[in-house]
Amino acid sequence: MYPARITDEFPAPSYRGNQKQALADIRAAFERGKDVVLVRAPTGSGKSLLARSIAGCARTAGEAAAEQVIDAYYTTPQVSQLDDVAEDALLEDLCVIRGKNNYDCILPGETDTPVNQAPCVRERKFDCQVKHRCPYFSDRAIASNRRIAAMTLAYFMQTAGSDVFGKRDVVVIDEAHGLGEWAEMYATIDLSPQSIPMWNDIDVPDIDGLDEAVAFTERVEHLAERRVKELRQKAELTGEEVAERDSLNTLRQDLGWFREDYTDTESATTWVVDQADSEHAPVTIKPMNPERYLKHTVWDRGNRFALLSATILNKEAFCANVGLDPSNVALVEVGHTFPVENRPLYDVAQGKMTYEHRDDTLPDIARTIVRIMARHTDEKGLIHCHSYAIQEQLKELLDDFGVGARVRTHDKEGRDGALSAWKRSDNPDVFLSVKMEEALDLEGDLCRWQVLCKAPYPNTRDSRVARRLEDDQWGWYYRTALRTVIQACGRVVRAPDDYGATYLADSSLLDLFDRAEHDMPDWFRAQVDRLSQPDLPRFAPDQALSALSSGTKRRHDRSRSRSGNGNHPLSDVWD
Question: What span, in angstroms and rounded, lies between the C-alpha atoms of 312 and 38?
């Protein structure tokens, strides 16, 4: 790596905000010999441009000896972030490659068939005469030979150990704050009717401990292997059978890796098992602190690493979570350039939103939202509902209060389409969202205000969360919630001249700020220090609808939306 050329690799014609200083600090960290640099850069810092500059420091073929690796990877967990990179003219030399299911076969009669279900994977000994023109294999070949290959984190991890995408000189991970949690999710093993077609043929035991889980996985793997052999004996498979074969092969690999890791006395991974207390219940095997998994899928893939995010809140805790030595890691802080008065936080807390208090608190929150709607009569709003149960209750309450005509919702299957329709609309509609605290750009009149209905603490019924709290890891618990809150606050203020208000409706959010104060970035602490109670209009549903009744419409000044298929749980960070 050649850190000295980092400014020459900057792709924009000029700097904005703190980009020039950030590049200088990143260069200095690498030149001090650090192999990993964490870049804590808030919304609007131009992280993608910083990422491109860092990737450009990788050795090229003309600069390397025969035994040295070259070039760079850019990767992000978020499909929407990769889409933005692909559309940015300043980043045109980042060569994007996606998974097979994103490409259509070009053979006659197969043009609506994704490549992962094309004849080459359906038919035994199929010889494709146009493989050199296949959109997937063509993009893969191009990306494997380009200076900077860009891909989602899921694809990056899945290609670990491949001959096509081997080790490179530099790896840049954008939106890296949840790297440990993403690794845990990718390494989680789900044993259920959804993942095992022959589930009804399995006598599922009551799992009491990991030793019993290991024995059960051996039996499942044997059945999966037998089913795969049956499928391989067929001359041609249907698309459903291809998906079944690939899913079972992945499951077999995961089960083998789990047993190998569990029996390795030197592995740092702790495994936990979840099973509902009912007959024939599915089994979920989850890793904690998957250092070994990350070593293989991430840390062995490059010489130097840059990890960028607005919410890497604690260097030591982050390093412990992902298996890094803090002494080999530098943290570069990028200052916020958005005026703090443009991103106000308002205290409209109505009580606790924990499960036992929700039924009492939510009606008061709904009434408060009506008053907020009246304050923003002709401006779009976003409500972070945290869960579909809260979304459903809140929608019913708002309908009862008579403001339903201004309210939109979404379900799990139609989230992307509903979001796109709301963004395109010229009406000042209010969108009740679930799990949209990240990867959502609502610049300008796309949204001027938002409400956080509930403190986003991790679910204590999750075995990994419960295990961490048993180990007294309360700092992790509060940091995780704070990270989500900070991400959510960045959805509606996207540029120095942009502005948007965030209303906090759960009193537990105020408690969270006290408990996690020492982990707050300075720029977010400045927002919290200015926290105030707004002067809201009286409860008047007719006033909240006044812009609709008068026919007033506001045209937003910017809209960037796309609709994905959203079928796969890893298709986007929202899922």
Answer: 8
Q: What CATH number does the domain containing 502 carry?
A: 3.40.50.300
The verdict on 422 and 484 lying in the same domain is yes
Cα angle 279, 280, 286 (rounded to 5 degrees) comes to 110
The half-sphere exposure of 225 on its side-chain side, counting CA atoms within 13 A, is 11
Q: Convert the pLDDT of each residue in 227-266 to its tens digit.
A: 999 888 888 888 888 888 888 998 998 898 899 888 888 8
CB atoms within 10 A of CB 268: 13
For residues 533 and 556, give the distance between their C-alpha atoms in angstroms, rounded to a whole number. 28
Rounded-to-integer distance, Cα 403 and Cα 430, Å: 10
Buried b (16+ CB within 10 A) or exposed e, 102-122: bbbbbeeebeebbbbbbbbbb
**pLDDT the model gives residue 572:** 38
Residue numbers of the domain that contains 52: 3-93+147-178+292-333
- Report yes or no on 111 lying in a domain: no
Rounded distance between C-alpha atoms, residue 36 and residue 302, angstroms: 10
Give residue 555's pLDDT: 41
What is the distance between the alpha carbons of residues 81 and 573, in angstroms, rounded to a whole number?
Answer: 10
Measured distance CA(399)–CA(300) in Å, rounded: 54
Q: Which residue intervals of 425-569 are DSSP H helices?
A: 463-470, 474-489, 507-515, 522-529, 541-544, 546-549
What local confidence, expressed as pLDDT, does residue 233 receive? 87
* 419 in the same domain as 396: yes
157 contacts 99 by C-beta, under 8 angstroms? no
Q: Are 329 and 444 contained in the same domain?
A: no
Is residue 154 in a domain?
yes
Residue 296 CB partners (closer than 8 Å, separation 6+): 160, 161
Same-domain check for residues 517 and 444 = yes
Q: What DSSP string describes 312-337?
A: ---HHHHHHHHT--GGGEEEEE----
Same domain flag for 232 and 372: no
pLDDT in tens, 4-42: 999 999 999 999 889 999 999 999 999 999 999 999 999
* Whether residue 156 is found in the same domain as residue 225: no
How does DSSP classify residue 175? S
Residues (pLDDT < 50) of the chain are 553-575
Write the CB contacts of 501 (distance below 8 Å, at least 6 apart in sequence): 344, 346, 376, 448, 449, 450, 492, 534
**pLDDT tens by residue, 411-434:** 988 888 999 999 999 999 999 999
570 found inside a domain: no
In a domain, 480, yes or no: yes
Amino acid at 320: A
What does the pLDDT read at residue 268?
A: 83
Residues 235 and 310 in one domain: no
- Give the count of domains, the chain: 3
Structure tokens at 381: 């709003």
Pairing of strands 270-275, 381-384: unpaired
The answer to whether residues 204 and 174 belong to one domain is: no
